[in-house]
What does this fold into?
Amino acid sequence: MAAYLCKIYGFKNIDSIGDIIQDTFETALLKWKYGAIPDNPSAWLMTVAKNKAVNYFKKAQRTDLVDSFINDHHSTSPIDEVILEGEIADSQLRLLLSCCHPGISEKNQIVLTLSILCGFGNQEIASALLMKGEAVKKALTRSKKYLREELPTLESTGSLKDENRVKVVQTVLYLMFNEGYKSTKSSELINHDLCYESIRLTKLLLKDDVPSKPETQALLAIMFYALARFPARISEEGKIITLAQQDRTLWNQTYMKEGFYYLKEATKTEEVGKYHIQAIISSIHCHTQYFDKTNWAQIIELYEQLELIDYSPLTELNKIVAISYYEGPAVGLNKLEVIKGSKKLEGHYLLYAVEGDMLARLGKPHLAKRAFNKAHDLSMNSIEKEFLEDRILEL
It folds into this structure.
């Protein structure tokens, strides 16, 4: 709905479009509560949103824009209001690429897209990008102002060929999937809808005229490998199950096959990017029948290559975890002290959760409890908090 209305009315009306969409869902809640849900809820919502938009912009006396919209798009028949799936997909792809405008910094492009098209809240964006909530709020204000003033309409198909902007879109979708894979503030650990939506949007980038196709295929491989492990990540009581404890017979074989398919397609090129390496790491886990048979040496080597291509403190932390299983938790802790000293992950709960796990494996329960308590205080997800409480009780 946001993508299509932006295509018609432009970014200069993005705030009004947001209000119209919210009003549309409120109307649905009221009408559907006391009557039957329509046969095609999506078409009903789009019809109502379009009608509300027409009425709103009429009242705002934007008659020139409204008249052309009515002539081309408006109909009194709900059946005629159904927009072709390809048109919706095209609108969303254009909106993704238009949010990634070169006049906006790359980080702010990601913030903007996560907010407008993906529906992220400020805190979810802050967690995904390791930013402060106030910084996210300021970035959104500045970026929306730029779009309203400098980019009144969605851009032409020329932007589909801009490799740099496609790479930013890939980053946005990667972060979007990560937030679904492990929700920041939700009462549930996994947001399945967000994961499925990020996969659907990523597939939009597989069009032949969109560059960086191998990287997109590798990104899809990462997503499907992760999706395959979902059934084993949460117990029947709703508790987190670590990778070491998961019943791998529960992993979804269909999704794993999709992951292997996209990885195979992605590696039909000499190009090697960060998503290729991450997909290969995921494939090693999916290929391994038992946790204690994991090829940690190969995984460490891959993380080292990934750091050369695209360094991130979280990548370094993942490498340290792998080292702790290959060379022992004592070695892992020594390396963890280095990253703690750099303050690169200061305030991130994962740093202390990893520290607590290594200390527990070394047989140092008091120090482990202190680290887990720090992680507990920093985590915003109730299921993660419960998991950390269980670890503390075990100690």
Remarks:
- Residues 62-82 have pLDDT under 50 and may be disordered.
- The first helix runs from residue 2 to 9.
